[in-house]
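Recap from last week: sequence in, structure out.
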Amino acid sequence: MSESDRPEDPKVPPPEQVPAGGPAPTSAEAGSASGADAAEESYRPPPWMRGATWLRGLMMLLFWVLYGIAEIVVGVVVLLQFLIVLFTGERNDRLVSFGERVSLYIYDVLRFVTFNSDERPFPFSDLRERGPRE
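Predicted structure tokens:
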């Protein structure tokens, strides 16, 4: 079979396009000598192989469960506060303060699980009492 009868291989350029020194080495060949050390140092595993990614997922799952519990607590606070106002005509300040703390906790949990914050909420950090965290 002559060269003109061979099917063309897209990876191998025709003889007239090969540089004088021969074909350029592939990336695997180029990195086998001096670039091997640099390639090993700059290697970064894909996200699904990183322990930090799996730890973040585990923390997100934990905080999603705590979020569900906090929703129930908020529902109880709302119901209690309504009943107190219904029968006394005044709101309970302690319940208002507790409701604010729970709502701030829910805010912190939602910021963490939606990747808006990397700071883990309570019990891994302090439970804040007022205002947005700076």
